[in-house]
Design brief:
This protein is an alpha/beta fold. Helices cover 37% and strands 13% of the residues. It has eleven helices and twelve strands. The longest helix has 24 residues. The radius of gyration is 20 Å and the shape is globular. It binds pyridoxal-5'-phosphate (PLP). Pyridoxal-5'-phosphate binds next to helix 4.
Length: 354
């Protein structure tokens, strides 16, 4: 029945999200969710929003939330754009800021949604290979381009690019937009938000899905100079004027304002990550240095697909990518609770011993 489809839809290769299994009792380490719940303050305000006022549209500009995000980062509200998850913020950035005649650049191993947006919006792109040690080499991006985008830390590798290298990229690339996707920055990196004042072409994208334990609320945001934010607003207001519902606006603000809870979430995940990396290396795994809430690891004697299947038989799910071929040996494993990571390590010990 695809004769009813538009030509664009026929040509799409959609993003495939990690599995959200219907089975309970699985150790779910496949989509980089936070293993802990969100701040109790978030639950309180979300409950309070379940009221008669739901008959009214939410604030189209999410003004209170944007003011809270601006205060948290020490920027002004006109430098903040919010969206229904950072995936939506990224989608608008592709349309508003990365669609030009020249191809945009991103790593060959990176967030697999980027080529999908290029397909949807018909944006030319060129992938730049990571180094042998899976690092982004800034020099490779200092070439004429329609824009640059990558996550920092990168996904699915977890490797961090130093802020000084991001600044070198910005200084050497004044003519096109550079988007830094900081989905995982709270787990060990230094944010590029401090560079926004000096670089008019820098857009930093963030999400509450991972470090704020709010993947289910769907809130992401971008920080950049007002001319970039205006471009995003022009797309948003040509697409959906009310992307954040009342629950999302209230809950996200409460989370941003609960600094102590947020810090404790990040500290716990980082402590468990250190223990997990040590345990994996002791079993003979090669683990890339991670600044994220996941690790990327391979075993010299076992294939990635086989390990993934063997873990699944033991009710543990991790993420495995077949392509590019260079990463097929690797497992991407979300840092869970200590108990979840112990279960993973015990299972891997049994599998690797066979
Ligand atoms: C998880 C993730 C996102 C999307 O986050 P949402 O806010 O949940 O849409 C964006 N970029 C990267 C690199 C991610 O890993």
């Amino acid at each position: 029945m695809s004769q009813y489809w538009s030509a664009v839809v026929r040509g799409l290769t959609p993003y495939v999200p990690g599995e959200q299994p219907k089975l309970t009792n699985l150790v779910k380490l496949n989509t980089n969710e936070n293993p802990y719940g969100p701040s109790p303050r978030v639950l309180e305000v979300v409950r309070a929003e379940a009221a008669e006022t739901l008959r009214l549209y939410p604030d189209p500009g999410s003004d209170r939330l944007r003011a809270g995000i601006a205060a948290f980062h020490g920027v002004t509200a006109d430098q903040v754009f919010v969206g229904n998850g950072s995936d939506e913020v990224l989608a608008h950035a592709f349309m508003a800021l990365l669609k030009h005649d020249r191809p945009i650049l991103f790593p060959d191993i990176t967030y697999s949604f980027y080529p999908v947006y290029c397909g949807l919006y018909e944006i030319a792109h060129r992938t730049i290979p990571l180094s042998e040690s899976f690092e982004i080499r800034v020099d490779d991006y200092l070439t004429p381009n329609g824009g640059v985008i990558f996550p920092n830390p990168n996904a699915p590798t977890g490797c961090l690019l130093a802020l000084s290298e991001i600044e070198r990229l910005l200084a050497g690339n004044p003519g096109s937009v550079v988007v830094i996707d900081e989905a995982y920055i709270d787990f060990g990196g230094e944010s590029a938000i401090g560079l926004v004042a000096r670089y008019p072409q820098l857009l930093v994208v963030r999400t509450l899905s991972k470090s704020h334990a709010l993947a289910g609320l769907r809130v992401g945001y971008a920080i950049g100079q007002p001319h970039l934010v205006e471009a995003l607003n022009r797309v948003k207001d040509s697409f959906n004027s009310y992307p954040l519902d009342r629950f999302a606006q209230a809950g996200a603000l409460a989370s941003i304002e609960d600094h102590a809870y947020f810090e404790s979430l990040c500290t716990q995940v980082v402590a468990t990550r250190t223990r997990l990396v040590d345990a994996m290396r002791a079993m003979g795994f090669e683990v890339l240095p991670s600044a994220a809430n996941f690790i990327f690891a391979r075993h010299p004697a076992h294939e990635g697909a086989a390990l993934t299947a063997a873990l699944r038989e033991r009710s543990i799910i991790v993420r495995h990518f077949m392509r590019p071929a260079r990463i097929a040996p690797f497992l991407r494993i979300t840092v869970g609770t200590d108990a979840q990571c112990n279960a993973l390590v015990d299972a891997l010990k049994a599998i690797v011993a066979c």
